[in-house]
Amino acid sequence: MTNSIKLLATALALLAGTVSRAQYRTDQVPQDTSAVVITLDQALRIALSENVAVKVADKEIERSEYARKGTYSSLFPQVNGSGSYQRTIKKQVMYMDSSSDDEGGGAMGMFGSLLPYFQRINELSVMGGMEPVQVDSGQSSSSSNNGFAVGRWNTYSGGVSASLQLVNAQLWESLRISGQSVDLAVEKARSSRLDMVTQVKQAFYAVLLAKEAFNVYRSVYENAVENYSQTEKRYKAEKASELELTRAKSVVANAIPNVLNAENSVILALWQLKAVMGVDLDRNIDVAGELEDYASQMLRDVNENRDPSLEYNTTMRQLEIQAAQLASTVKMYKAAYLPTLAANYAYNMIAMTNDFKFSEYKWSPYSYVGLSLNIPIFSGGKRYHDVKQAQVQATELDLQRIDTERQLKIAIRSYLNTMETNMNSYNSAVEAVALAQKAYDIAAKSYKVGKSTITDMNDSQLQLTQARLSQSQAVYNFVVAKSNLEKTIGCDFIDEKGETDLERM
Hints:
By secondary structure, the chain is an alpha+beta fold. It has twelve helices and eight strands. The strands form three sheets. Strands 2-5-7-8 form a four-stranded antiparallel sheet, with no helix packed on it. It is elongated, with a radius of gyration of 45 Å. Mean pLDDT is 81; it is low at 1-31, 101-108 and 133-144.
């Protein structure tokens, strides 16, 4: 028995050292001064500037802005430069027929009149290294059987062209769709912020709940140690049995894992909070306040959210923007039936030579300006089916909107019911804690004077522990449901100037 007492004393000493080194204490015990204590508002402000999801959403808005500006560029002239070089491998051969009007007179007609020029071309071809072309000058045929080569070996060209859309209804509708895409990106960014705010709130509340559980289990452990000390004294005075002493030691041993698990839960909850805030996990922070601070607002919060609206719900807003996009898409596809008008301009320079003496090249300019009218006539039904496809998508989206609105209303009622249920549970838990505390005090005093057993003490301690945990759990369930409700109804935290205003939530 002496060895057992020594082992228990060692375990208690180790536990006492562990608890004394714990970072989390009640208000009566000072906290770790190296930890940065933050409030819920501070946690939200940090998350709004550091959270990765928020940063990604902001980048998506920026990307959509660039995409819209890229679409607007179609309204400006499109200017392009071009240049090319072409080396002829085999020149084109040209043939010419004689005029039928001159056949009756026995003359060569047009071909005969151009014969001297063909001979000169032949001479130039020989100078260029080509085989001479035999030109048929006979009058017995209406056409020459031989031809002559045309063109030069090197061809250089370069120039600039420009086009401007003057009338293009399809382009104008695409510009409107691009603007709506930016609005959708902004609303998605707002949705990301609402999700992030909800996650930070719930992570913050989870830390408070974990700390409350730690305080409860630590109190249970301290009471168990105190009861064991009294039982040991009574046992030494032969006023308590060995069974009571053994039960007292068992209660202490069972309380140790609960304390350690509760402390670990606090550490894990803090890691989760830091993760959703977007700060380094090794940063030493702690949270201010306790769950009881939110209990006094339960009744007011339930009454304020009694009849919420979906006007600012981010999902419904996104569906509205998507519906507007589909309506513009239908108009864009219908605009494909309309003619388009564009202005065109081009200026080109061309040089054709047989050598590479660039300084002696003769460049010939060529330019024009004009209008281009495109009238759609037949496309195999593509435009018709594009319109029908967009109309079907619009119908699908409308059905989805109706179902989403129904589901959101169900969720709102569920959150309100959860809030009201936990408000009533909290009120009952408060009364249960008071009665359990009174019962435990009576059992403790009775045990000191020997009028009750250690079993009565343990039973009253268990009832008190369950009541205190139920009280904290009711507050936690209430604030979690409230945060989900605020996210669903779209309680915004951005003021009219676009700045963060957490008081609006």
